[in-house]
Amino acid sequence: xxxxxxxxxxGVLMGRLAHGSDLLEEITGICRDNSIRMGRVEAIGAVSGxxxxxxxxxVSEYEYVTAEQPLEIVAMKGNISVKDGEPMVHAHVVxxxxxxxxxxxxxxxxxxxxxxxxLIEVLDGPVLERKPDDETGLPxxxxx
Length: 144
Fold this sequence. Notes:
Layout: E1 8-17, H1 23-33, E2 39-56, E3 61-67, E4 71-83, E5 86-96, E6 102-107, E7 112-124, E8 130-132, E9 139-141
Antiparallel strand pairs: 1-7, 2-3, 2-4, 2-6, 2-7, 4-5, 5-6, 8-9
């Protein structure tokens, strides 16, 4: 049975990320600098190159794809929680190329911002810590 916890929005940060920055690292840094431990994140814009992951359930590890070309960020959504005492951004991204062909997956370090507008919604409530999950091999929220 699903275990859910209640959260209350307490604020929203909106802004433009730095050209040439790493998308995941930039958002994580904003969370760290603003003491954000719970939240949700979304972004639109463009990247000059990307690295996205796919979790291979058969071998319980991520496989990564790198695209070294300009791409549009059609959508990026994710959440913010805590892992090893630090803010962790877990986001998925959909990207499209010059033909409008789209692909996506788990946002990974190595995705470089060309232009990006980002929104971070800060949530107040129990801080969820990511811990290794025996069943999936993933660092999932400890809902205890």
